[in-house]
Amino acid sequence: MVDPDEIDEDAPILAIAAAAELAGMHPQTLRQYDRLGLVVPARTQGGSRRYSLRHVAQLQEVSRMSAEGMSLPAISRIIELENRVRELHLRVRDLEDRMKSELERRPGARVFAAGATGSVISLRHGTRVRRATEVVLWRPHRALPPGDDDTDH
Questions:
Q1: Coil, strand or helix at 117
Q2: Which of 14, 47, 91, 153 has the highest CB neighbour count under 10 A?
């Protein structure tokens, strides 16, 4: 049996007929949504459409919003924004993972907070920062000899 946590929702595995059946739509509707840029599947080398489980969920969402009277351009914008939010969540998770692994790899690394004005504040490990502050992991470009600091450069 397949573990649901191991299913890749973005894997383009479904032919148009299977995706249409799962979404409760006619394959021609999927072709139209593809042409309009609403739900754009991956393509095989031969040009056949391949849908993922995420695409099927999007198709169901498009159907629901359309049935509620929302226009296709409005639905398209919502999907575009949802995709952007998802991409940003993935990027944040990746950056958090990279920062965590860097801190584990270099326990002496220092973390700084940079405010909107450019002010820099050194943080202790585990310190929370305000929302308007970005957290940056400091990496020296070159190793400094012990006792040397960069203040006179």
A1: coil
A2: 14
CA 97 – CA 94 distance, rounded (Å): 5
Per residue of the chain (153 residues), give pLDDT as tens: 656 667 888 899 999 999 999 999 999 999 999 998 899 999 999 999 999 999 999 999 999 999 999 999 999 999 999 989 999 999 999 989 988 887 777 666 566 666 667 676 666 666 666 655 555 555 555 555 555 554 444
Nearest to 80 by CA among 37, 19, 29: 37
Question: In total, how many domains does the chain have?
Answer: 2
Instruction: Tell me how far apart the alpha carbons of residues 140 and 61 are, in angstroms, rounded to a whole number.
Output: 48
133 in a structural domain? yes
CA-CA-CA-CA dihedral for 61, 67, 70, 71, to nearest 10: 100
136 φ, ψ (degrees, to nearest 5): -130, 135
φ, ψ (nearest 5 deg) of residue 79: -60, -40
- Residue type at position 61: E
Domain that includes residue 42, residue range: 1-105
DSSP string covering 2-34, please?
Answer: --GGG--TT---B-HHHHHHHHTS-HHHHHHHH
Does pTM top 0.70 for this prediction? no
